[in-house]
Amino acid sequence: MYYKTRPYKIFYAFNVLILGAVAVGCILPLIHVLAVSFSEGVDVTAGRVTFWPVNFNLDSYIQTFQDDGFIGSFANSVLRLILGVSIGITVTVLTAYPLSKMDSLKGGRMITWYFVFTMLFHGGLIPTYIVIQKLHLMNSIWALVLPVALNVYNMILMLNFFRAIPKELEEASLIDGAGHFTTLLRVYLPVSLPSIATIILFVAVFHWNAWFDALIYLKQDKWPMSTLLQSLVKAPDPSITTSAEDAANITERTLKSAKIFIGTLPILVVYPFLQRFFVKGIVLGAVKG
């Protein structure tokens, strides 16, 4: 077999080394941020912290959780995540299912290409801002959720997954008296869990990390955490209120590191549970035409 040949073994070894180096390069900054967040401020300022905490303490995390602005932004991010994922997956499924049935219809492919067209040409920032303003969505969580409710790329993944499902399953359901909505809920969705989990992961990561839209549509008291963190990285953190005796333990850098790690933690926790669906969902949703 080809995987037993010497050239393949050499390629495999180099591939592992290169990808391993890339993985280490990606994870080391996060480890450094974590180490800084658990270290005393004087050691961080002196440059003695690398990838392990020096003089371990939790003062930065204690002050972070006492910051009402940060807790509020975290709650806003959770709300955006819940609304964005629930609405996004619902709209994606309800769009992909009927489109998967249009191949046999005259002009059905053109309807699919209508959605693909939006991937190639976008209205732009100013027209989108005007639409949000005219719909009276300014300073509302809906300004962050509704404009991106349907991601065409995710819809195409789900569309191709639905096309790959044997038609005999649908025909048996229809013969038994089920309608299309029942067939979607009872037949298509249960066998589409890998693709659905993949899309949920994509949508969740997008909404948790997005920061620019809130910056232009919302006032600061309604910012999600990603927008707040982006502003803190660029400007001094106004939430630092340390006493003279705590100044050695907490600095602006340790406090920012704690907030950055807390902002990253939810994705780090959720991702491993969806990882097993990720590759399967991508492959099954991409190779079927």
| Envelope shape | globular
So, CATH architecture?
Answer: Orthogonal Bundle
Q: How many helical elements?
A: 14
Euclidean distance between termini CA atoms:
30 Å
Radius of gyration: 24 Å
Which class of secondary structure composition applies to the elements? mainly alpha
Quaternary state of this entry equals single chain
DSSP strand (E) fraction? under 5%
Provide the CATH superfamily: MetI-like
CATH fold assignment: MetI-like fold
Number of β-strand runs = 0
Largest sheet, if any? none
Tally the structural domains: 1
Low-confidence stretches: 281-289
Overall pLDDT: 82
Share in helix: over 70%
User: What is the H/E order?
Assistant: HHHHHHHHHHHHHH
CATH class call: Mainly Alpha
